[in-house]
Write a structure and sequence with these properties.
243 residues; alpha+beta; Ribosomal Protein L22, Chain A; five-stranded mixed sheet; three-stranded antiparallel sheet; 12 strands; globular
Length: 243
């Protein structure tokens, strides 16, 4: 059995956290934040990146500002000599997944209005048929179930925008276990993959994807006060409280 996947969740809107975490960032990270038009988006970027550095530095036993990342061909960061990790953020929340041995992909998405045409571009024919079969009241939940699961797979492969979204299928119906059912790429077969669906809040679904014979348990290390994430049954809680 592989060790647990550690999950860290934190908020992106605290001005005090912005000041403290910005001290850990490199010049290019500060410059990238400065390119955002809206101040709240710049703050969220700094807190997300600074929070990533802080938590990985704790794992590595070194100062956050000393971390040096390698960037893959499609932009996925990696930490030489460190654990595998993936960061996602949506709305006011960031979520970080860390595992010692396994490459993984993570996505979280807050529900928001979506034009139905987006599904035509993002989903396969099988997925679109499954989405169209849902009652109208479940369409948004089904859409974001599919979106997070597909994005998690793409991020786990590290392929980025070069991966064809119609080349693989995921389940998306509310109440249906998260599975990768088809993978017509060099990253297949689908049976080699594990998907985990969970929720940070009722309107913020999340998904993890990784290549492994079994799904490791998810361990919630921290979450903001008042946030009660729903994790799979074999998962656990532990670690420190939120900052």
């Amino acid at each position: 059995m592989h060790p647990a996947i550690d999950l860290h969740i934190w908020r992106l809107s605290d001005p005090a956290a912005d000041v403290a975490l910005s001290a850990h960032l490199e010049a290019q990270e500060i410059a990238r934040a400065a390119r955002f038009v809206r101040p709240q988006h710049a703050r969220a970027h700094r807190i997300a990146r600074g929070g990533l550095r802080l938590r990985l530095a704790e794992w590595m036993g070194q100062a956050p500002a000393t971390l040096r990342f390698d960037i893959g061909p499609s932009g996925k960061p990696a930490l030489p000599g460190g654990p595998f990790f993936n960061l996602s953020h949506s709305g006011d929340l960031a979520c970080l997944a860390i595992h010692r041995d396994l490459e993984l992909g993570l996505d979280i998405e807050q529900h928001r209005p979506v034009e139905r045409g987006v599904a035509e571009r993002a989903f396969s024919a099988t997925e679109r048929a499954a989405l169209d079969a849902l009652p109208a009241a479940q369409w948004m939940a089904g859409f974001f179930n599919g979106w997070t699961r597909k994005e998690a797979v793409v991020k786990a492969t590290g392929a980025g925008l070069s991966m064809r979204l119609e080349a693989f299928d995921v389940t998306l119906a509310p109440g249906t276990p998260a599975r990768l059912t088809r993978m017509d790429t060099t990253d297949g077969p689908a049976q080699a993959w594990q998907l985990a669906a969970f929720a940070l809040a009722p309107d913020i679904p999340a998904a993890l994807a990784l290549r492994a014979p079994v799904l490791p348990p998810l361990r919630l290390k921290e979450a903001p006060p008042g946030l009660l994430p729903e994790l799979p049954d074999h998962s656990a809680t532990g670690g420190r409280g939120s900052d």
